[in-house]
Amino acid sequence: MYFKDAQALWGKYLGSGKKPKDFDEFWNNGKKIIEALPKTFDLVPHEIFSHVAKGYDLFFTAHDGNRIHCQFIVPMDEKKKYPTQFQFHGYHGNSGDWSDKIGLAAEGYCVIAMDVRGQGGISEDSRKVSGGTLKGHIIRGVDDGPDELFYRQVFLDVYHLVRIACCLPQVDENQLSVYGASQGGALAIVCAALSPSVKQIFTLYPFLSDYREAFRLEVAQSAYEELAYWFRFRDPSHAKEESFFSVLDYIDIQYLAERVQGEVFWGIGLADTICHPKTQFAVFNQLQGAKEMIAFPEYGHEYIPLFSDFMRKKLIGGKMNE
């Protein structure tokens, strides 16, 4: 598909249009919960075998008592404040190799990469919920309402992390950026939406958007297959369909998009069958500030060349605060 054809199809698409009436109140109240917590954390030195950077395991206690882990990589001279990038990983994964972040540290950046609770890293997820916990984190907690959704907790973890990071003496809170792909791309949007001080957002084919439409678009072949799983075993006749989606609307990033104030650089594979381009346009079209979509027509939900180089050019080639 050519980018011009994608724009013709979805360039004005604004998603499902089911934003809950109390959505903004819901997230404002969530932020207040985090803001009432002490900005406490633990830093444990981690050997990363570098001549240019130091590594730390950063731990903090989430609003619900779970212990959240992040990698923290900082340039060798820790007496300065540095531009800082938050990084978030894909679904099921973890924050990856420490060595992946040393390149940015060598250029004078701090990097903070969070392990999403209950996935491939060491962050905890001990929260109890009703209903099934198999087959996916989108549906975890859905039977208990918006407050108990798994991703509500993760989104609040992200906000909590930014508040803590701004207390670190090596972090320049006026020069913050964020990067992620898939689930990480969604969390990059969430990070900037809940923390307007984030100035640059680099997101690749973000997940967690436009659930109602994602369900209609070959859901069994996509990252949203757990939606069909829930109906198959919990609601075979779809009697609860509206109430099900009305809960998930609270963690749909399309409704957080208008809060983003930083500049957004969005990579999209037009052959993506995992996070359909239409669901991505639902979010992109609701961004209110500066934004740029970089399309890769022959690529799907996979490694995409050039995007990392593009990000490096934007970060290193100019000052973030200009």
UniProtKB/TrEMBL annotation:
Pfam family, one: AXE1
Binding locations of substrate: 91
Active site: 182, 272, 301
MF (Gene Ontology): carboxylic ester hydrolase activity
InterPro entries on file: AB_hydrolase_fold, AXE1_dom, CE7
Limits of the Acetyl xylan esterase domain: 12-308
One GO BP: polysaccharide metabolic process
Superkingdom field: Bacteria
PANTHER family: CEPHALOSPORIN-C DEACETYLASE
Record-given protein name: Acetyl xylan esterase domain-containing protein
Origin species: Enterococcus casseliflavus EC20
